[in-house]
Amino acid sequence: MQLTRWCAPVVVAVCVSFSVLIVNVRHVHGNGDEEQGRQDSGPGTMNVDGVSSSHHELQSNDLTLFDPVPVLSMHNATERAILKHLNLGQPFKLIGTAAEWPATGNWTLASLRSRFGKQVHNRYPDRGEPIFDEDGNFVEYFNPTDSEWEDFLKQFEEEEQDNSYIAWQCRNETASKELQSMYWLPSVLEQVGLSHGHYVSRQGARETVFIGTATGEAREAHIDYSCSNVWSAQLQGLKRWYLWSPLSCAGLLSSESGFDKCLATAKGLTTVLHPGDVIIWFAGWTHRTEILEAESVALSVEFDAPFPTTMLAEALPVFEQHSTHTGSYSHCLERWHRIVEKGQSET
After folding, report:
1. Angle, nearest 10°, between helix axes 309-324 and 79-88?
2. Positions of the chain with pLDDT lower than 70, given as ranges
3. Residue 3 belongs to what H/E stretch?
4. Is 335 helix (H, G, I), strand (E, B) or coil?
């Protein structure tokens, strides 16, 4: 029996550790005044995000290394401001954008499993699916025999029972349409021409629901080798995000031994998402999440445009370096070069 760490190539890749009898699968494809309205809860009891300081006894990064994620609210989220942030490729937060969604305050692990049953689980590879290592290199196709497949599913289900963090990557069109009736595209993205539910990720995901039933680290620091931008809405509980730009620890892949050591002293951005808040971030950003209040439920959806031309122009050498000996961004580079060239010709 071999303990295998398998990482799904989703919006925010989620790793599941489980024992597999049959196949070795490695599938990956501040402090600062950021929210004035959430600081007035009494001296010495709340930090800048309105979270009790006792929560930060968890294993956290040194917050003095982090600046707050920029915030847009209803009054300053103009089309010009949105396009500026999207072009720069710098993560930003939208306060309360998802507060009125039917999903907000109502989606829980119990309610989702009651409605969608066994669909709500961490992602595992389908039979015949290509397997990649965590830097995007093709390893093999996942082709178990019928008996091996049954053993695989049984083992996976047993592991899931004790898992306190689930990333349900919804690839079922019928289920996705039902989910979409309970949330909608953040209005700031509608302002720049996007439409609800128009994008399906390279892995076939329409949306991913992240559920944490215990406080503590949700996802270790990692890079999603995706070509797309992402928005993530907090629907229940509190979650802290840490983000580092593609230029931080630029020479290192997330699998390399010096990566975590570098991030321990690297400058980054941080924020806490409350129910109704949305964060928008971009390809190549290293990120880590930590659940401060459980149950935490968040929804993440990739979107394909507009692309951050300024960030791509600065970070393309890093992405190319990562792809020299691995498959990490190889599938993105041709398109990204065209985007950068077009942006430069228009300036």
Report:
1. 20
2. 1-61, 134-137, 195-205, 344-347
3. strand 2-7
4. helix
pLDDT at 213: 92
The tokens for 323 are 């792809």
pLDDT digits (tens, 9 = 90+) for 168-201: 888 888 898 899 999 988 888 887 777 665 566 6
> Which residue type does 32 have?
G
What is the rounded distance in angstroms from the CA atom of residue 336 to the CA atom of residue 311?
11
C-alpha 123/C-alpha 104 separation (Å) is: 23
In our burial notation (b when 16+ CB lie closer than 10 A, e otherwise), range 6-38 reads bbbbbbbbbbbebebebbebbbbbbeeebbeeb
For residue 194, what are the CA distances in angstroms to 119, 304, 305, 309?
A: 28, 9, 8, 17
Q: Are 224 and 284 in contact (CB under 8 A)?
A: no
Per-residue H/E/C for 8-20: CCCCCCCEEEEEE
* pLDDT tens-place string over residues 37-69: 443 333 333 343 444 333 333 345 688 999 999
Q: How far apart are CA 43 and CA 59, in angstroms?
A: 24
